[in-house]
């Protein structure tokens, strides 16, 4: 039975990222904080989701998505640097290490995030593997996922939601914008590179929606149930900021039930997609394993 080897795929991604960094002609003063956060021990779920979706169709297509995967990790890393800043979540630990503004200083951390964000679009634009039409689509979708109608909008709503009484629908919107959009982009990017049919895209998108919400519910739960050794971050950070979270809104047990509900939706979407395309998209269930509550947070 065919399996998805995420450790091998991750090794390929890390090698490609290292090669990209090696050939950067950038001042060491900005390169050091960029690399510090880029190589800070993330699970790489977003780029791996993109690459795995390509591999399910044809392993040779991985090289066509590698630069976009690196760009995606740039965007995700920038968002974490800025999230940790004193004006945002004011965290001093990320993945068990000092956050960028602690390791360097606040101004350097802001600029490192700015550089990662800006460079991401150039990485895709300069990719010789892709057609011009694909590059425009990939960049356009990345702008939507990460900018003022996507992740940034979610981050602002998250901040505004502190000390507020939100409905479950409002909380879901925050989770979708702040976290789900980039997961969806991983799949949208793969669909663009694959020139996927509309019916298949919709099912892939359905999986991405469910997985993104489940991932954020998992994060909310881990903030309550985890510890610094498991998550790499201080526990109860959301509660300290009076953030709207699933456990705060509906309790731990109901949150677990909601997590399982979204996981079920994700699995159903993959099954239907596999049946429609006759490709083994059910292999993407491997990513759902990260949502076990004994696993570490992002």
TrEMBL record:
Instruction: Give the organism, scientific name.
Output: Ignavigranum ruoffiae
Matches recorded under InterPro entries: Isoprenoid_synthase_dom_sf, Polyprenyl_synt, Polyprenyl_synt_CS, Prenyl_diphosphate_synthase
Name the source's superkingdom.
Bacteria
Which named protein is this? Farnesyl diphosphate synthase
This protein's cofactor list reads: Mg(2+)
Query: Could you say which enzyme class this protein belongs to?
Result: transferase
Tagged with keyword Transferase: yes
**One of the GO biological process terms:** terpenoid biosynthetic process
Return the similarity comment: Belongs to the FPP/GGPP synthase family.
Q: Which Pfam families match?
A: polyprenyl_synt (PF00348)
Q: EC number(s) per UniProt?
A: 2.5.1.10
Gene3D superfamilies, per the entry: Farnesyl Diphosphate Synthase
- Catalytic reactions of this protein: isopentenyl diphosphate + (2E)-geranyl diphosphate = (2E,6E)-farnesyl diphosphate + diphosphate
Traced from the root, the source organism's taxonomic lineage reads: Bacteria, Bacillati, Bacillota, Bacilli, Lactobacillales
Q: Which GO terms describe its cellular component?
A: cytoplasm
Q: Which UniProt keywords apply?
A: Isoprene biosynthesis, Magnesium, Metal-binding, Transferase
GO molecular function terms noted in the UniProt entry = (2E,6E)-farnesyl diphosphate synthase activity; metal ion binding
